[in-house]
Amino acid sequence: MTTLPPQPLSPLDGRYRAAVAPLADFLSEAGLNRARVEVEVEWLIALTDRSLFGTQPLGESDKDKLRLLYLDFGQSEIDWLAEKEAVTRHDVKAVEYLVRDRLSTLGLDAIAELTHFACTSEDVNSASYALTVKRAVTEVWLPQLESVIAALKALAIEHRDAAMLARTHGQPATPTTMGKELAVFVWRLERVARQIRSTEFLAKFSGATGTWSAHLSADPQVDWPLVAREFIEGLGIGFTPVTTQIESHDWQVELYDRVRHAGGILHNLATDVWTYISLGYFSQIPVAGATGSSTMPHKINPIRFENAEANLEISGGLLSTLASTLVTSRLQRDLTDSTTQRNIGVAFGHSLLALDNLRRGLGEISLAQGVLDADLEGNWEVLAEAIQTVVRAEVTAGRSHISDPYALLKDLTRGRRIGAEDLAEFVRGLDIGDAAKERLLALTPATYTGLASELVDLI
User: Which of 169, 198, 366, 403 is catalytic?
Assistant: First the structure.
């Protein structure tokens, strides 16, 4: 058997590449290295702006040229770093050498020794991960989540008044509306989305064990914690002042738990919509040229929701591992987080793929109101709740002498199918006031939806 040409091992870099490609700008190895170059360059500029160690602030032209090192970061830099890392066996050191090399090219050798000045690798890494994860979440992942919420909200509003039989424990239950049931997911997802938007993306910049020891050795007169804070906050991220060698990753744990939580809600959505399709409540809109089954031409399989379900499970497992692993680092530093964090993109990739499937799937379903109506018409026994509740109110008001309203309705309806006439006859014979009888006789399963429609207005 011949060996295949080089192939992507992960489906995210193969079959599903198009759906997740925007994440690669930030959460790939190249995206991380670009951010590392950005941090190194901005640290150089920050140090010279303060005229430390006899330097002078760089001119705007030189700053612009320096910033092009990350703004124009591309294949040549990727290749250069790969070759250098093969020698250094250290990724951040390779980035330092790249910046030094480019400084020489730009005629800025005089400040070369300030490259990576007083930094441990984790100073650069913590800032770089905060930048890349923040950008991936805010520029790619959150907009896709918001597009799913928007599609869901539109369906909820469209089907605000679409009465349907509810199913608790899989059994016929008090009717609701399809709009209200979809609105529940909108409400849940918007709450978690707000929490994710409020994430603090944090970094440290305090040296080998978080003490600024090297910085003070170089110049004890400088307020290094202030310099570090202003530098990190100037990058658009938050600052953690008390750390070991690493930033403690608690913000990442919080974020990944919240994204996993959102994924759990989305998984619930996928399985519910799948079930509604199975019940015939939603029909699927055929896609021209698509094949539903290799042998059964009539089928349109709910693959969007099945794919979303599977990818959310994979993403949730990875996010859970990230959260449980990153919360711990032995003593002042161990290297487990290095390997773990390289899978951030994989976790978000499967989540993004699920969001893409859900967004597409929600646009390919149509409510089958006739099926909902037939289901309601076949389950008049769900009005037993209304009847026994009205009877209780009548007993309390002194207009009825029925001793056990619940048992009365249980005997009538439990395990039995009854129709409109059966129920009407039963209501007419009840010992309750005329006004109460009229309200009950006017009820149908389709009108017994309470405030379901109004609840949709809350979203």
Answer: 169
